[in-house]
Amino acid sequence: MTSTALELPEAALTGLRDHLMATAADEDKTPLEELDGLSDSVLAAYWHGYVKASESGGTGQALHIAAFGASLFAPMVAVCKDIDGLRAALAHSFQ
Fold this sequence. Notes:
By secondary structure, the chain is mostly helical. The chain is built from 5 helices and no strands. Helix 3 packs across helix 4. It is globular and about 30 Å long.
């Protein structure tokens, strides 16, 4: 993935994308509807969790479990500097 203003860790982006797709399917929504339904703070907490989890090298189910745990303890300052860029990258990945 290339980005001019925002560099996103690929493993974290893929993990969060997979999570949103699975959650959307469980709730009979599209992935974009699921993404649009998240507040900036919730999206930032999920993002923090997936970034932290991907740093450990986990994959698959282990990545999702670690990300969930890390997102529960995301500091309030974990809000991504460019949450709009993160939303755009995720939305683009659903196409």
